[in-house]
Write a structure and sequence with these properties.
Structural class: alpha+beta
Radius of gyration: 36 Å
Shape: elongated
CATH architecture of the largest domain: 4-Layer Sandwich
Largest sheet: 6 strands, antiparallel
CATH class of the largest domain: Alpha Beta
Number of helices: 15
Helix content: 25-40%
Number of domains: 3
Strand order of the largest sheet: 8-7-6-11-10-9
Strand content: 15-25%
Length: about 600
């Protein structure tokens, strides 16, 4: 290889610094092309590195190692801000994410711990990004504070590559808003989160958030606008010549730094007291979601940093809005389904008074699988309460299937044991992937004699006529859907005239950090302190604490049954008198030997 000619002398500026020169500012590098491309990158005077879509280092040249003072073996396959502690400020990671979201080059300065200033320029595409690193002058505002040991910069930043100084306070809001939006569930919560994060972060005074519906834009949230100003834009078509519409249809943010710029681009557009605007498209997975408008009360120059950050925030808001809109639709359908599945009223039964309550949880979809029912049978009346695990449309659907099955089995003269066993087999055959608990009590309103079956459900509470209470610890079987062949024993007891039976789901008695017995004791206290003749008031008082709770992780269902008493036929009275009462049964209320039977 012939020797290379000597490089021409570089002219100097006053002060001895090299004059700006024309330089290669980018490189196309394909790792698959082999050693030739790698050798070419190694000969470049700047540090060159590549990151994948996840921000991990895939290539580092020799000059990059020198400038970062780190071996490439320590960088490859890792996030640079995890390896180099001086790059661990969230702002630097934000720069990568902002560049990837906006697909626009971005740049910033970093002060190396050794004292020199380094310029970073990031060139993104859909596969990752390529970056340059080069020594630089300190920023003007930092020059006075630079230590004397800072080496004189060898290369000035090329004038065609503007480098902005990192502003961690502003860029950190990208991460902060992403965190807040993960907690927002409904469209309203997303709008509130966007307004509360965006306006203070970027110094805006007005914000309008529009969503697309039937190819028209409708206002979802506004803050700071004069009353009635936005009415003229409500329901505008996506064919309208307006900046908010065209930002969405083109997918490109539009920025106006003064009213003159906006009026020149859109003659005749209505203006309010604002003097600068950012119109951001809200696009999620190539789907048009809406537009976000940010207004400033003074002329405002949008830096590359702000444009990238606002573009990134628009993407985050779009994803959150799309998720929230799907949630709102699913929630509306689910609540409608649940309302249709729960009994709208309980049937009147001679000798009994009943009252039911249902409260949805306050987390997730706010629906679940709790239900209660009162079913008339050929032998009397069946009192049912159940709980399907989970909080979703699927849980509500399974609840509807179980409620229908119990109604069908109970109306077909099946014994209590048969009703629960058949329901258990049906749930197992559905392969729904969920389990359920249930308490089924068949009561003869003429005698007060009851036959109870419990499948993994909390035991009932009985209030005696004198106001004393007890927990009926009935023998039971496994949860429904676990074992198709599970056996469910039946326990018989008598409900005294003037007594009240309380069936409930675990959401009423379970609270994080509290013993379940404490929840049961609360029910007993309310039952004891309320007269049996005020059943509706008693039901409301039982659920009062749960209704007022800000966080209710589970659904709540309650069914109260007051036994007024009937006139038993002679044969029933005779048999009842001949039956001994077991002192070992639940509170002396059980009939027979207290062990529970296996039949009706």
């Amino acid at each position: 290889m012939p020797p290379r000619p000597a490089a021409p002398a570089t002219p100097s500026e006053p002060g001895g610094l090299p004059a700006p020169t024309i330089r290669l500012v980018g490189v196309v590098f394909d790792a698959a092309s082999g050693s030739t491309a790698a050798e070419a990158a190694e000969r470049l005077p700047d540090g060159v590195f590549s990151l994948d879509q996840d921000g991990r280092v895939t290539y580092v040249n020799h000059h990059c190692e020198e400038l970062l003072r780190c071996d490439r073996e320590d960088l490859l396959g890792r996030h640079p801000w995890h390896v180099l502690t001086w790059l661990s400020d969230p702002a630097y990671e934000d720069r990568y994410r902002a560049a990837m979201l906006s697909q626009e080059p971005t740049s910033f300065l970093v002060h190396h711990p050794a004292g020199e200033w380094l310029g970073f320029v990031l060139y993104p595409d859909v596969h990752g990004l390529t970056g340059r690193i080069f020594p630089s002058d300190p920023p003007p505002r930092a020059a006075e504070g630079v230590e004397e040991a800072t080496p004189e910069p060898r290369i000035r930043i090329p004038p065609e590559t503007p480098v902005a100084i990192t502003r961690p306070g502003v860029l950190y809001h990208v991460v902060q808003m992403a965190s807040v939006l993960t907690e927002a569930v409904t469209v309203r919560e997303v709008c509130v989160a966007v307004a509360e994060q965006l306006l203070p972060a970027f110094g805006g005074q007005e914000l309008a958030l529009y969503v697309v519906r039937d190819r028209r834009l409708y206002l979802a949230w506004e803050s700071g606008y004069p009353e009635g100003f936005l009415d003229r834009f409500e329901g505008v078509s996506l064919d309208a010549h307006l900046p908010g519409v065209e930002a969405l249809t083109t997918g490109v943010p539009i920025f106006f730094e003064s009213p003159g710029h906006l009026s020149a681009a859109y003659p005749g557009i209505a203006l309010d007291r604002m003097h600068a605007w950012a119109f951001l498209p809200l696009i999620a997975s190539s789907h048009a979601v809406g537009s976000l408008i940010l207004g400033y009360d003074a002329p405002h120059g949008f830096t590359a940093d702000e444009r990238a950050a606002l573009t990134a925030l628009g993407g985050l808001a779009a994803q959150a809005l799309e998720r929230a809109r799907l949630y709102d639709v699913e929630f509306t359908l689910a609540r409608g389904l649940q309302d249709a599945l729960l009994p709208h009223r309980l049937p009147p039964v001679d000798g009994l008074r009943t009252a039911g309550r249902y409260l949805p949880g306050t987390q997730g979809m706010e629906i679940g699988g709790d239900w209660y029912d009162v079913i008339e049978t050929s032998r009397g009346v069946a009192l049912v309460i159940g709980d399907v695990e989970g909080h979703s449309v699927a849980a509500a659907a399974v609840m509807g299937q179980l409620r229908s099955a119990v109604n069908a089995f109970a109306s077909s003269d099946s014994s209590p044991q048969e009703v629960v066993s058949r329901t258990n087999r049906m749930l197992a055959q559905l392969e729904a992937g969920v389990f359920a608990t249930c308490c089924y009590i068949e009561l003869d309103p003429r005698t007060g004699v009851a036959s109870a079956v419990r499948a993994g459900h909390p035991p009932p509470v009985l209030r005696h006529p004198d106001g004393s209470t007890e927990v009926l610890d009935l023998p039971g079987g496994t949860m429904l859907g676990v074992d198709p062949g599970a056996a469910y024993p039946v326990t018989r007891f008598r409900l005294p005239a003037g007594g009240v039976l309380a069936l409930y789901t675990d959401g009423l008695v379970e609270q994080p950090g509290h013993d379940i017995d404490a929840g049961v004791d609360r029910i007993r206290t309310v039952l004891s302190g309320t007269g049996a003749d005020a059943l509706e008031d008693m039901a409301e008082r039982v659920v009062q604490q749960a209704r007022g709770a800000a966080e209710r992780p589970d659904d709540v269902a309650l069914l109260l049954t007051a036994y007024v008493g009937g006139t038993p036929p002679a044969d029933h009275a005779s048999r009842a008198e001949e039956t001994s009462v077991s002192p070992d049964a639940a509170g002396g209320a059980a009939l027979g030997d207290g062990t529970g039977g296996t039949g009706g």
